Amino acid sequence: MKTLLLAGTALLAMTGIATARDITVAQSSDLRSNNPGVNRDGNTDSVILHIVEGLVGYNNVGEVKPLLAESFEMSADGLTYTFKLRSDVKFHNGKAMTADDVVWNWTRYLKPETKWTCLKDFVEGGAAPVTGVKAIDASTVEITLAKPSAVFLGMMSRPECGFTGIISSESLGADGSFVQPIGTGPFMWDEWKKGEYVHLKKFADYVSPENEGKPDGMVGSKRPLADGVKFMVIPDASTVKAGLESGVLDTAEISPDLIPEFQASETMQLIVARNNGKNLFYIQTRDKVLSNPGVRRAMAMALDLDELVAAASNGTGEANGSMVSQDSVFFSDTQKKRLPYDVEAAKKELADAGYNGEPISIIANKRGNVPSFPAAVMAQAMMQQAGLNVQIEVLDYATQVDRRRSGNYQVISQSVAPRLDPALMYSFYVGDKDKNASLMWDDPKAIELMNAAYAEADQARRQKIFDEFHGAHAEGNAGDIPLRHGRCLGRDQEIEGPARLAVERPPLGSVSRRLIHHSRAGGDPRRRPFHHS
Amino acid sequence: MRANLHSLIVWTNETGEANLQSALNRGEAMLRFILSRLAMAIPTVVLVSVTVFALIRFIPGDPAALMLGDMAQPDQIAAMRVELGLDRSMPQQFLIWAGDVLRGDFGRSIVNDEAVLPLVVSRFLVSAEIVVVAVLLASLIAVPAGVIAAWRQNSLTDLALVGTATVLLSIPTFWLGLLLLLLFGLKLGWLPVLGYVSISDNLVDGLLYLVLPVVTLVIHEAGVLIRMARASTLEVLRLDYITHARAKGLSEGAVLWRHAFKNAFGPTWTMIGLILGNLLGGIAVIETVFTIPGLGRLMVDSIFARDYPVIQGCLLFVALSYVLVNLVIDLLYPLFDPRVVAE
Fold first, then answer.
1. Record's Gene Ontology CC terms (chain B) (predicted)?
2. Does the model's ipTM exceed the 0.90 cut?
């Protein structure tokens, strides 16, 4: 969401349109808090991303690039990171950002009482334990780690961590409690009417990263040309549609079933952009029936993934059998390999495995804008063709999460938030199931590969690790069937550039992201302030 | 018996002293009535509290896991459960919560750490703004319509009114709301499509934002009330004293309004109270369709998020408001039917 808005404002500058106004965006739920990386969810991250920035961020292909830092260096032993800060960055209160601010922020994040979501990753026992943060001079910060970590910068850039955003110490009150975020982003915190809307206003002194004027994920060029952004809380899909049609809303995510209607509309525009979230079929490998690898392979081969994704995404999706995102620099030809769609082979596998029509239940949820249920319906039909006795059980999301975490399921169809570093993605489902019942792939080799991916910084060697990972995964032993999200770019004559979202929030981790851009027929074209990066 | 005796005194004794005594006794009776009704509410509220507390915990779904997201490790979730007090036994959790509630502390939201009581009250006021206006308007329209339908029983007017009422109460509110939204908001552009402005912030805008949700509720509830008003009026119109009134030569208007209506309105009044209490308990569908930050939406969101303190706070508040609304309805009942006080 953030990427779209910021890039959209950049378009206004590019096309020389001077008029600005508030942009109104629909959100399905209210913010949890305005404290970056502390009490959060996907919608919260989307708002916070406009306000705060970190030292580094992800670009469109999942690489970590400098953001508030001008540059960064890693020492030869991989234990020390030196960040040279940009000299042109100001907080929303007008004060210049210095190395002391960075040290203050990191000190705050690492205090348990801050309740930073990502604390466990950056303390002893975590993937990148930080042992020291110090200011070398006014514009240089040095962060030391207890052990080398290939994912240190990537984890800093994650939405769940609040992008490890650097905020002014004035964001806190005299008693140390959090008041409101005073960040460095293109928009400033303005007003929060709980249950109704959040309003951000333009930060006139914002200085965008250069990047030759081109947008690129979180780290590209971005300038706030709109006066403000209003995030309205609208949980009902029909109301969102009415809001878009009436012009009250400028942009909103819609459900896939509305795609044809919006494609045909003369007053609205459909934009479909790929994100890096994914929908997985989690398979319980300890289930009596599904513990048999032959049954799992048969399930995988029974699925025509291309057809399944196309149907579940209303033609906007694209299948990908790998856990590595198509956008990632690690997405190689190896990642494209997957078990073939072959119903006869699936039937043979089932016969060899001694499957006798035992029931298999897929748990799905009907949350808006995620393909959990339609994907389950398609999978059910396809698996039944191969002779699998598949039923669907629809649960609410909280119950579904509970069942997954407790391991009490056979198959679950659920979307997963994007993790641009493949190691972070693998860590989501590789590990000891006795210690964590929500994990799927309890295999010593997979665990070894995952640990190696966390420690290895060299990109070529990491590529090899991920390719090896995928080889084992594609054999169908991993206990999951990933459905990668699709790509479908919608264009408007007034919108330039590719539609691409490198980072996506969890609720939007669906087949594809759909944004409706409102423009009235014959209306002022300047009411089209969005541009994708 | 005692009330009857005092009524007799009022009728026979013209002295001021007697009137004063009578008023005092009436006041005493009324106070006793209120206290007894409030006392009757206590077990209701306790039962609601226990039931809600237990039921919400029997529903699968862990608020700690939902809060921490899909990357959380089991030890983090366990730590969060300790922090939220969810690691304690259910009776312990209940006693702590009940003790806090008795001290006026409804706890804090698991989701956003807001104090529950102010949150619930602020959302309740938003819902109440819509519900009270809607029920008032529905009553003003439906009661006369129901009386007329009864008066003109089996005529075309009756048929039209009953038919309309049946259609109105059969329409689901979410569908009706969306239709109104599309027609008056989208096609005609007369009214705002979404958003909310409080009347206290801006009277004119606030009223404009209230029109569609209020009209939706009025249309739906009027159907119920028309049928109730008609049925109770018909029952009264068949009584002997109405025939007697007519035999005395009174006009139909006088018979209807002075004799029939007063006695027939009692059941309708009770129904109005039930509807009011019910709607104040949450109009989640209306609030969702019209993006109104009311109590119903808060409750639904809290259930999805397993925000136990907010769910408990909402339902306890709803139970209390239901009891109070019906108490007020009962207290006002004697205005329409003095026999209630006498009894």
1. plasma membrane
2. no
